[in-house]
From TrEMBL:
It comes from Operophtera brumata (Winter moth). It comes from the Eukaryota. This is Endonuclease-reverse transcriptase.
Amino acid sequence: MRGRCKILLIHGVPEEQKEDTAAVVEKVVTGKLTMQLSGADISRCHRMGRSSSNRLQPILFKLKDVAVRDKVWFAKTNLKDTGITWSEFLTKARHEVFMKARQRFGVTKCWTREGNVYVIGHDGDRHRINWLGDLNTIVKCLCTLW
């Protein structure tokens, strides 16, 4: 996850023919988040996967500075009701853990921060989950409490 700390994904942005993805990212950040981001802040930017007419491909972009990344990341609350969302670029294993946690605990009680997955359990406590075994342990511990 250390190599992915400056990378974010944007979901829900319509795709255009021969688009400049860095310009699209700048437009979203300056327009929706009302903050300044220039092309000099972005080290690389591209769409993930193959182009498809029935599904929007996320835009992966890597920022040069962690401070700028954090500023953009924490401004994501301004994207409510726009159809556009941010996510962290998690490894396959952590993404799987995150999706399983969302299934078990609900979308509103799961989040990621700096590549870690966090869950608010049925006991009301916050738990950090690193792998599926941690998730199973939390569920088992909570079942014994009830």
